[in-house]
Amino acid sequence: xxxxxxxxxxxxxxxxxxxxxxLSAELGAILQHRRLTAVYQPIVxxxxxxxxxxxxxxxxxxxxxLAQPTDLFAAAETGGRLLExxxxxxxxxxxxxxxxxxxxxxxxxxxxxxxxxxRGRPEACLRALAACGMRPEDIVIELTESRPSGHYxxxxxxxxxxxxxxxxxxxxxxxxxxxxxxxxxxxxxxxVKLDKFFVRGIHQDPVRQRFAAAVAxxxxxxxxxxxxxxxxxxDELEPLYRYGIGLGQGxxxxxxxxxxxxxxxxxxxxxxxxxxxxxxSPARATAGELLIEVPTLPPAALNxxxxxxxxxDSDCFAIPVVDGGQPVxxxxxxxxxxxxxxxxxxxxxxxxxxxxxxxxxxxxxDCRMSLEALSARVVAADRRYLVxxxxxxxxxxxxxxxxxxxxxxxxxxxxxxxxxxxxxxxxLPGNVPINxxxxxxxxxxxxxxxxxCDLDHFKPFNDLYGYHKGxxxxxxxxxxxxxxxxxxxxxxxHIGGDDFIMLMRSVDWQPRLERVLVAFDDGARAFFRPxxxxxxxxxxxxxxxxxxxxxxxxxxxxxxxxxxxxxxxHHELSAAxxxxxxxxxxxxxxSLFVERRVPA
Length: 600
Known about the structure:
Elements: H1 20-32, E1 37-45, E2 51-59, H2 69-78, H3 82-100, E3 105-110, H4 112-116, H5 121-131, E4 139-143, H6 152-165, E5 168-174, H7 181-187, E6 191-194, H8 206-222, E7 225-228, H9 234-242, E8 247-248, H10 261-273, H11 303-312, E9 318-323, E10 326-332, H12 333-341, H13 345-349, E11 364-366, H14 371-380, H15 384-388, E12 390-394, E13 397-402, H16 404-420, H17 431-443, E14 448-456, H18 458-465, H19 467-484, E15 490-496, E16 499-504, H20 509-524, H21 530-535, E17 537-541, E18 547-551, E19 554-562, H22 570-585, E20 591-595
Parallel strand pairs: 2-3, 3-4, 4-5, 5-6, 6-7, 7-8, 11-12, 19-20
Antiparallel strand pairs: 1-2, 1-8, 9-10, 12-13, 14-16, 14-19, 15-16, 17-18
Helix pairs in contact: 2-3, 11-12, 14-16, 18-19, 19-20
């Protein structure tokens, strides 16, 4: 149950002073008194932060020289007690799960030698699960290798026994140690874990990005899901999700902890809310909008019942299998009807449990997932989800289903609406989506910053250089704001003319706004004639007809920090932002004013 991809010999991985009888005695005491601790780390859906599963990990006694799992398992391997340790780890991990009363999927690390061991091992696992009130479908065997293995045929045969019972299979540390593409091809796992080496700094490394993209492509072709390990920052998360890797694990979501797993789940969801992309769609459309009611069946239902439901209703495209309010699988129309149409199939399958014919790994999404995230996930996943649809839940509880057709129709409507309300000069969202997004943030009690951005001395520039150059300068302002924004959580809108709005949830919003001022100044200088640049401005007749000196066009920004409950609507907040902008414009040159007064 350790997390160890080890390439040296077992003895090389132990402290020099601990050997022989001392080593054997230390390990023997740990095994005899079951002095192991289970800790759990979440595996999350990158689209929305929903916890998909937990990985159970083992730690030795804190005061022991074998406290670290690498040393513990190296000692067991050296002493010939690896199988004994592996079995004890499973017992301890399952006992921890049973004690916390949580449901869901659990990844357990198992070495190949344990799988290759004598007969009866799968049955022993079943007995251990039954004692904890768990099913094989709840467990994913995560295969770890500490040395190269050539027993592919035997290993595949043994693993088939587990998989026939319902266990899932994951290949650990792809790209590290001896976890190879051949092992992937030989075993056809349900999950593949991308080693943290390829995750660290992936946002800055094109080679790592290409490797991750290739792994995602192979997984899509083989029906496996990829889990990226070692994610520590949102910068690392973004390219992984973009390249189609749907699951992640790492300190960004939670460290391995021996704490109530409900606490881990709450912390993970809180952390991921800061990543949820801000959209310009009218009501921040979510998967819940696509909800439709379809008949469901319990696991105890027979295949004949599913066949009758499909046969009676030509519009019934899928039937979820729901156990205790939680979806466990999906019966697909074409699969059931085609199976029953074959000779003797009805006699063979009609009186068997519908779990035998269901898809045990349907696409399950939370009702709060944005349609943009859902669309990206469907595109990155298996094409069957477009035909068979997806199950919609609320915090894991079954609600209903959605279809690929309805998703595409709603996305098309949103694109048409976005184009309708976009500013024709910059293509940025206009007043309608700006106001709707503000109201949505206020309704969500979100913490955010509204920044009103305006160009100073724009009209004289437009009069002197012409409206075409004026349009180009406005486009420069828009592109500068977009480049400075964090696309994951900031929103940029174009009110009209030379006025822009930014709605920012990025933690570093103030440095971003300060960079906007400098970047716009640098870009705008190229619009002026050399003499005007040198003089810092130009002379033009003013509104009264008298000649006046006008400085080079620059930007002023008024920002307001918004706390939950401060403003009732976009009308109030827009007025406060306009006041902040007017104060900023009183300062000569580029300026940023942050309103820190609390409204009465």
